[in-house]
Amino acid sequence: KTYDIAVLVGSLRRESINRKVAEAITRVAPPVLRFRPVLLDELPMYNGDLEAQRPDAVNRFTDQCAAADAFLIVMPEFNRSLPAVLKNAIDWGSKPMDRNVWRDKPVAMSGTSPGAIGTAVGQQHLRQIMGILGASVLGGEAYLSFKPGMLDAQGDFSDEATRNFMAAYMERFSVFVGKLVGA
Ligand code: FNR
User: Fold this and answer.
1) Phi, psi for residue 103 in degrees, rounded to 5
2) ipTM
């Protein structure tokens, strides 16, 4: 049994350190987790007027999320909260309420920023929002203070301690997903 994990990155930037870290995290995860990027690039800003005929980009996004067993969200912190691009995507996925794509889905979160507490505060906000939407958020925390050289030329974590830390977090996530999604 394998599990499909949708990876959401809360940055549209081409050189996003969070996209690179998301990739590095997926490489230390157990093979039972199969990761698929879900892009936020095309999503318009939420506008209730668009509900009458949801744009294709929105339907693509919610279909991909609905098909996933669980989510890995990796994001920067903007002003000690989550980036608007990610909040907007979460809002689209939460409507209509009877098709909320987040409900009862396992979520693991991580993120990096050059600051000393590398996204810790933003992740608290994300955790709260996902809880309100009925997702099951993996306990514990996994934020990384970004330092140049944190990733090697292949895009892997250079530091063994960081690699082991993320591997352990993803191992816990796989057990959590297995319990919630079932065999
Ligand atoms: C930031 N950044 C930032 N960093 C942080 O640690 N705490 C914060 O509250 C903020 N706030 C913030 C607001 C805004 C509007 C921007 C543009 C940036 C810095 C941020 O972590 C840095 O730009 C990262 O490189 C962004 O992540 P990506 O795009 O490289 O993945």
Assistant:
1) -60, 130
2) 0.98
